[in-house]
Design goal:
The complex is a heterodimer of chains A (266) and B (190). With 266 residues, chain A is of the alpha/beta class. In chain A, 36% of the residues lie in helices and 15% in strands. Chain A has 2 domains: 14-52, no CATH class; 64-252, Vaccinia Virus protein VP39 (Rossmann fold), CATH 3.40.50. In chain A, helix 4 packs across helix 5 and helix 4 crosses helix 7 (137-148). Residues 258-266 of chain A have low confidence and may be disordered. Chain B has a single domain, classed as Rossmann fold (3-Layer(aba) Sandwich). Chain B starts with 7 loop residues before the first strand and ends with a helix. Classes of the chains: A alpha/beta (266), B alpha/beta (190).
Chain lengths: 266, 190
């Protein structure tokens, strides 16, 4: 796999790779290593492999309390210079759509550009088209109701070419870029929010540390980093951040250049 | 008794298992050393309550681990809501948001199967009452990897689907009611 650009999975968790490759091999009826290596020459198979190695299994507004906090407290508190919200490893688009929707409801649309990034071309196309996984519809609806206590979620959906999509007015601020965030990052100094939820789960500890280091460096001072509820944050990196909400895993990069060596709570 | 040189205990359960697990945790010796991993079916979007409920009577510390956390003695690890929990070769926990398995996340099969691969004959697997076939294949993996297996006696189950599905796949080392499971655990060395 290393012979092909963008396919370095050396530092992913071994058990994760074993599960995903086994799953793909079963789907593709690949029984021997030689068959797998043969298929790697095919661009279509490599695209399939990249897609399989992105776990596209989230849902809109997973952890509604987080989205409520973002909308009501942290998005309005973003640094003034911030115009960019970054999702370095987007898969299903559902976090991007959720973010676009709460920006709309907080009457902040157009103030920010959402940059979603995925190694998979297929995922990028789906995100740009605003496609929604229909299997998640009921869960999305339920999460939204828990967030908003009303039924407006379906007002944000449209049907295009027979498929359920998020409305164009919401997705117009989402730009999906193909490429692994470890190899390619937005060259901007105005990234005020990074959503990196449940991605490091699939990395080994070294890669997880490297990824978080990169994200903290990319975040503008005063900006927020959001992790998954159970993501591992190494102690040395945690010391560089202020804990804004420990339950929802929201951290802030201090405004000063000097790292903050204490844990602070709002 | 067969080899009891265990390094880890994994427990799977679904409907009706909360009271069984709670009873076992309440009755374990306070100095019980082996780490215990619980993979219990639970509501995906209710994050709190279960660990607190199990902690009420438990003499051991009960926690929902973070990803990459090392399994420690004297501790009970509960798979968090809406995450699969895998056990890694280095004795750490790996959480995952991958696809639901048997309509479940956490999936008991995933926890038990990964632990079977990592701990082999040093693993004790226990499958409790439940209304789903999830867990049956994971228990068979434990048996296939020479781990020790205990299935709750279906006659003592609130809902016996899960143990019965397991019994279709393999013969466990023990078929026990909850009280006997507790005695068995307390009789383990260490």
């Amino acid at each position: 796999m290393l012979e092909y650009p963008g396919m370095d999975y050396t530092e992913y968790s071994l058990s994760f790779l074993k599960r995903r490759l086994t799953r793909l091999a079963t789907q593709q009826r690949i029984r021997r290593k030689e068959q797998f290596l043969e298929r790697l020459h095919e661009a279509d198979f490599r695209a399939l492999l990249l897609t399989e190695l992105c776990v596209a299994n989230t849902e809109m507004f997973r952890d509604p309390a987080l989205w409520r906090l973002l909308r009501d407290k942290f998005l309005p508190a973003l640094p003034q210079e911030c115009t960019c919200l970054w999702l370095p490893h987007e898969t299903s688009g559902e976090d991007s759509y959720s973010l676009a929707l709460i920006l709309h409801e907080a009457e902040l649309p157009g103030s920010f550009q959402i940059i979603a990034q995925s190694p998979s071309h297929q995922h990028c196309q789906a995100v740009e088209a605003g496609l929604i996984n229909q299997q998640h519809h009921e869960q999305n609806l339920s999460n939204y109701k828990r967030l908003e206590d009303r039924d407006a979620y379906e007002n944000y959906l449209v049907e295009e070419a027979g498929k359920s999509c998020i409305a164009q007015s919401l997705r117009q601020n989402i730009n999906c870029v193909q490429g692994h965030f470890l190899n390619r990052q937005p060259k901007r100094k105005d990234i005020g929010l990074i959503l990196f939820r449940n991605v490091g789960l699939y990395f080994n500890p070294r890669l997880n540390h490297k990824a978080l280091r990169l994200l903290i460096d990319a975040l503008m001072p005063g900006g927020y980093l959001v992790l998954g509820l159970k993501d591992h944050l190494p102690t040395d990196l945690e010391k560089e951040l202020m804990v804004c909400d420990s339950a929802e895993r929201i951290y802030q990069k201090p405004l000063s250049k000097e790292p903050s060596y204490g844990i602070h709570r709002f | 008794m067969e080899s009891t040189d265990f390094k880890l205990i994994v427990v799977g359960g679904s409907a009706g298992s909360f009271s069984v697990v709670s009873h076992i945790l309440a009755g374990l010796r306070p100095d019980f050393k082996l780490p215990i991993v619980l993979s219990l079916h639970r509501l995906k979007h209710v994050r709190s309550g279960l660990v607190e409920g199990l902690s009420l009577k438990s003499k051991l510390r009960v926690i929902e681990p973070n990803d990459k956390e090392k399994l420690q003695q004297n501790t009970v690890y509960l798979a968090p809501a809406n995450y699969h929990l895998f056990v890694e070769l280095d004795g750490t926990v790996a959480l995952s948001t991958e696809e639901s398995h048997n309509h479940s996340r956490p999936s008991i099969d995933h926890t038990l199967g990964s632990a079977a691969y990592a701990y082999r004959d040093k693993l004790l697997g226990i499958l409790l009452t439940g209304a789903n076939r999830d867990g049956a294949a994971g228990m068979k993996e434990i048996a296939d990897n020479k781990g020790f297996t205990i299935v709750q006696d279906p006659l003592s189950c609130d809902i016996a689907t899960m143990p019965n599905e397991a019994l279709k796949l393999f013969h466990p080392d023990r078929l026990m009611n909850p009280e006997d499971i507790l005695h068995f655990l307390n009789a383990l060395p260490g």
